[in-house]
Design brief:
mainly alpha, 77 residues, 81% helix, 2 helices
Length: 77
């Protein structure tokens, strides 16, 4: 049990560490794009991808509410 908890703690630490590194990196990219005046252009291209991702996430959450497992198909296979 102790080994399992240690692995979970290491996994949590890696995830949090990755987020801590990723946040300033994204901030620096956005700041650079804003200074060069290309932030609006990037938003225009990224908007359809973000909307599609949100729709997919909403469909996935709706499937969980209906009792269907996330890893199973709707026909039970």
């Amino acid at each position: 049990m102790e080994t399992y908890l240690n692995l979970m703690l290491i996994r949590f630490g890696l995830i949090v560490g990755g987020l801590v590194v990723l946040a300033p990196l994204v901030f620096a990219i956005v700041l650079t794009l804003k200074r060069r005046g290309r932030l609006d252009e990037v938003r225009r291209y990224a908007d359809p991808a973000v909307r599609a991702g949100l729709r997919a996430a909403a469909r996935r959450l709706e499937g969980r509410k209906n009792g269907a497992a996330w890893s199973r198909r709707q026909d039970g296979r």
